[in-house]
Amino acid sequence: MTLLEIDLNKLEQNYTSLRNRLNQHSKMIGVVKSNAYGSLSGLIAKKLVELGVEALAVAYTQEAIELRGDGIEIPLMVFYPQVESFRDIILNNIEPVLYSKTSWEKFKEALSEEKKISYPIHIKYNTGLNRIGFHPDEAGWVLEQLKDSSFNVKSVYSHLAQTEAPKPNEKTEHQISLFEQIMDKHSQASSQKPEFHLLNTSGVFNYPKYHLDWVRIGIGLYGFANQPEWNKTLHPIAQLKTKITQIHQISSGETVGYNCGWKAPKNSRIAVLPIGHADGFSRQYGHGKGWVLINGEKAHIVGNVCMDMLMVDISDIQCKEGNEVEILGSGIRADELAESAGTISYELITALGNRIPRVLKI
Length: 362
Known about the structure:
Elements: E1 3-6, H1 8-21, E2 27-31, H2 33-38, H3 41-51, E3 55-58, H4 61-69, E4 76-78, H5 86-91, E5 95-98, H6 101-113, E6 119-125, H7 139-145, E7 151-158, H8 170-189, E8 195-197, H9 201-206, E9 214-217, H10 228-231, E10 238-243, E11 246-250, E12 255-256, E13 262-263, E14 268-273, E15 291-294, E16 297-302, E17 310-313, E18 324-328, H11 334-340, H12 345-350, E19 358-360
Parallel strand pairs: 1-19, 2-3, 2-9, 3-4, 4-5, 5-6, 6-7, 7-8
Antiparallel strand pairs: 1-10, 10-18, 11-14, 12-13, 14-17, 15-16, 15-18, 16-17
Helix pairs in contact: 1-3
């Protein structure tokens, strides 16, 4: 049976390690979007609250509503709220990020309809990532709107494009400079005194001077920090395991899998594993790019990854049907496996499908 084992002790170790890096006055927003990066959002959120995280964040409103249903009562921030979800945000006491004139005006209308004032919001500025956010030149418009009592601005923030890049980095320095100007404008011109944040996990490691009032930590909580040296301070919290379904003896010259994707260069033994691209383990790991661990030894994937199965070469490994296989975990880090296929740990772990049971490590 294939399953994803979640280790809350490792989550606590990561939380503590990251918390100890923060400036004394900086608070933490724990990011639990995309089912807590492919794990279990409700379980992870509850543990982070227990550990003392000051706020949580998700990508979309439905994720936050589900956390409220799980009993999460601390502030919940939604990074990318869609206009259609504004009423649900208000009804569930969720804090939206406003990032454009349209989102601003539509949310104000929703507050008026629900007869709410001084509602907590966050303001996002686009300083160069060019994803979402007010342009820095729109700060004057934003500040003028804040004379209205509809909103209680809890924070003003931006997102850096490449915090893991070696310093000095011209792009990052330019973004920081723009955000410092925005901070000055809000601090001086607004009667509301918001708090500020700029950094994600990599930024916490690389730019300690700019921890500011808050930091937003996502991938770091789950054991990754985008640089080998930083990774050493963290532990992957999830281990993806399965068992060998069947073993085949393959003669030299025979092929394995769809499109005859692998041709045996010699007499070989092939193990079939019950996981495939329908489970989020992509075809890009086929043809030897990906591997698994069987009895502590590396077994490379042969041919194409199928929808529900994949095959690995066990010619030099002593094993039998039913033996346990580690696909991801402490022995195979998601960032290392992802790099072999030209992608990143985020994509690999968040893609793991709902067909894979999530269980707590006892």
